[in-house]
Amino acid sequence: MQKQHRLLPFVLVALVFLALAQPIALMAQTEPTPTLAQPAATSDAASTPDPAAATPGEATATPDPAAPPVPRVHVVVEGENLTTIAADYGVTVEDILAINNLANGDLLQLGQELIIPGGTGEAIATVYTIGAGDTLAEVAAIFNTTLADVVATNRLVAADLPLIIGQTVPVVSRTGSAAPRPATGRPYLVATGDTLLTVAAAHNLTPAALAAANGLTSPTLFPGQRLRIPDETAVYRHLPEGWLDVRVSPANPGQGATVAISVANLLPGTPAGRLGEQALHFAPAADGYVALVGLDAFAEPGLYDLEISGGDERGLWQPLRAGLTVTATAYDTQYITVGEALDGLLDPAVRATEDAFLHDIFAVFDETQHWEGVFTYPVTTTVISAGYGGRRSYNDGPIEIYHTGLDIAAPQGETVSAPAAGVVAFSDVVELRGGIIIVDHGRGVMTGYYHLSERLVSAGDAVAAGQPLGRVGSTGLSSGPHLHWDLRVMGVPVDPLPWIERTFP
Question: 388 with 406: CB under 8 angstroms?
Fold first, then answer.
């Protein structure tokens, strides 16, 4: 009798599968900062020495006759409700609620797309932008088309070609909408001892429903297997095994950009990785980890390898690899004239010595994020007299360096304030940059304020956003009063302007 009882769960699972009518298939610089490519030129006192997306054919492929019919879709406009929409199409409110998985029909939004039961729409040519971990099979699934159609539309020779983050892929949508309709659900990683019956029961599902959601044709599960748990409130990403989420922003970075890489994995452990030759330093964030990467102003444009892995003694993450294209950014040329009294500061040896000294300060990594939201301008004036990345010539000399930050026009003595919260990492006077303050904002992000006439904070001081740091001046290698504002990510000077326009990470 005991032996019979032990076999009973497996018998039940087998019967469940016999009962399944039709399983559902899943639908730069010369200083020793880390660089991504070949080093570029160096800085002044503040200077330092769209992806090539595929151009596939037009989305005019003939739909696969085996593909399901395209649903009729209605876009909600002002003044409509489910009663009027249902009457217009000759269907019931209940039918619309059911086919759209809506629990409450009173909460419609302008522009919301509703599938209308019983009707047939038309295929729509659209374009999808590839994200980290995407595959052509997933692209086909979210547009309710076939892999063969996606391959044909893009005139590809094979379906398993590597995809590049930010790459645009023409596709013929068969959802009735030009927008992708990603699968919903939450990921689950099968543990040792799990069965289809126990996993289904733990999530208030029937084994049949769980099997259908994952296209399973066998009740056998194996440790490390990734399952999709049906949940209409969450977007499911078809990532490999334990990967929960991988996002890269922006998807099409240019030279001088800051790139945020966010990851989450169902397995325990800490991630590590690289972008090109630059190591990624991850810190905990929300439900996962994030790393910020600085792209040098003259990082070589082209395709860079992104590789992320992780884990601990309890298990290793399957490495995730992707390609990221860095595009060229247009910079100007800046001609600077300084007096004979400052000629000695133009000696490359002076610059090299100071850059090496500051490199060690900028290289410190504090995983704590001290700032919130966007950064603000450090002075009340916002007139930029010299932009980031400009090639520089002093006194008509050779162009061998570039500008590592922004020069902001401001009068002598104007207050310089912290654009975001942080901790003062350095406050002193140096040869090239004059009066200088460096603030560590955490996660490898630091800002520098150069040519100051007065410093109001000391190393180790915690500063709040908007707190006075110093006064505008013209100390060091400077042709007149102004503030040079530097922003560095993991020691790499980047363009500060995106930081006052969007939130990182």
Answer: yes
Residues 6+ apart with CB under 8 A from 472: 379, 410, 411, 412, 413, 414, 415, 416, 451, 452, 453, 481, 482, 483
d(CA 384, CA 396): 22
Give the span between the Cα atoms of 2 and 471, in whole angstroms.
Answer: 84
Q: Which domains does the chain have, with CATH numbers?
A: 2-23+184-229 (3.10.350.10), 78-118 (3.10.350.10), 333-500 (2.70.70.10)
Return d(Cα 33, Cα 258) in angstroms, integer.
Answer: 15
Burial class (CB in 10 A: 0-12, 13-18, 19+), 504: buried
pTM above 0.90, yes or no: no
How many CB atoms are closer than 10 A to CB 153?
A: 22
Which residues pair with residue 150 across a beta bridge?
Answer: none
Which of 492, 354, 346 has the alpha carbon at shortest distance from 436?
Answer: 354
323 touches 252 (CB < 8 A): no
Give the separation between CA 125 and CA 393, rounded to whole angstroms. 50
Question: 300: Cβ–Cβ under 8 A, 6 or more apart, which residues?
Answer: 36, 37, 38, 326
- Partners of 452 in the beta sheet? 435
Is residue 147 a contact partner of residue 179, using CB atoms and an 8 Å limit?
no
Segment 149-186, tens digit of pLDDT: 999 999 888 888 888 999 999 999 999 999 998 888 99
Band of residue 336 on the pLDDT scale cut at 50, 70, 90: confident
Identify the H or E element spanning 312: strand 302-312
Amino acid identity at 47: S
